[in-house]
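Exam revision sheet. Question 4 asks you to relate a sequence to its structure. Input first:
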Amino acid sequence: SFVVSGYVILKDAIGIVENYKLDGNEFINIKYGSYRNEDDENKLSRTFRIYKIGRNPIGNLNSEYISIYFCSEILLLSEQLKISKSYSGKQIATKNDNSGIINNILIEKLQIDSKKLIDIEETYGLYDFVVPNFKPLEAISWLSTYARPKSNKVGADMLFFETKDGFSFRSLQSLFKEEPYTTFKYQIKNLSDEKLGSNETSVLSFEIIKTFDALESTNAGMYANRLISIDPLTRTHRTTNFSYEDYVKKVDTANENPVVAPSKNSLGIKQTEAYDSRLKVVFGNSNQTDLEYIKNKQGSVAKDIFIETYVPHRTAQLSLANYIRMKIVVPGDSGLTVGRTIIFNIYSLQNDETRKLDEYYSGKYIVTAVRHIIQTNGSYETIAEIAKESVNVPYVEPDYTTLSYREVIEKT
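Answer key, structure tokens:
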């Protein structure tokens, strides 16, 4: 999500809501960190805006549970503002100043200290945009769909998010290539740590949220999609096809191998060639400079928005980023933040003496969501949602000679 948020639950027997006259104009200071390390550099101390109170009477008329919900101040501020402004010849984001459109919105409109823009990745291209009366965070979300990383990464996979340290605007591909923050493992308790390495942290539990879903991935356009871009000014159109099989050869991935070995359907078409599985029709302007009349008329040509690049790729990239998702519960770690990469190792279920790692579900993941849970008894756990779009070991190419294939696909 765009901002950090959370809630505190209190058992109240003194009438907190009434005595403190809570009405949504308060602030709350949150401090937490690892109790095992008093010098933990990742400890957090930060003030948030309270935006909602929940009350749940226990039943004895003497006490109740109070839920205090809080978020970053900019979330409330963004809901109170509108932006209606034109930007001409601007990058969507810049690294070291506020000349980028998103930088300008964060610093000038939301009054965020530039030191809090901790990791803004520079984008490619100059654009002419008119922000049409959007809320600031709404405008950033809209601009993110057009943004392409300047570091020659393929596609348009830029995302805006906040961590405990500040705000980031990064390409998924650049995040995938970051050095892992740490390595986690899951193993049977009576097995020696030497099996997976003594420098790894054991997870308390894990859950596989999502594995491959061929129907969902097809409908989402992850394997293949088609874009028809229409320019009403020049009365022309272009068709752009996206194929995952071609795409994966040109991009940076978290692990070495793609998540699917394409197979043919009964029409002899691979799922990476079924472009009509996801069809989008949009307005574009990439052909305008080809016409002399428009090109030579001053002020008549807007800068190319590269719609043929960002729409097909972003459609696939956002779906692909969550192709395999897990949830892990680990001992409290305030340094584990969204956007970081980790290694997660689990054993294969193959029952042999080697007890090797799972080839497809072990590997490098990106952290997509984090929740810190601190209890009154002093226990502190971190729940992280992790995802990946690639695997360590390649999947086997389909065997088109098998009897089952011929019965189903060839109908013989």
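Marking note for examiners. The chain has a mean pLDDT of 88.
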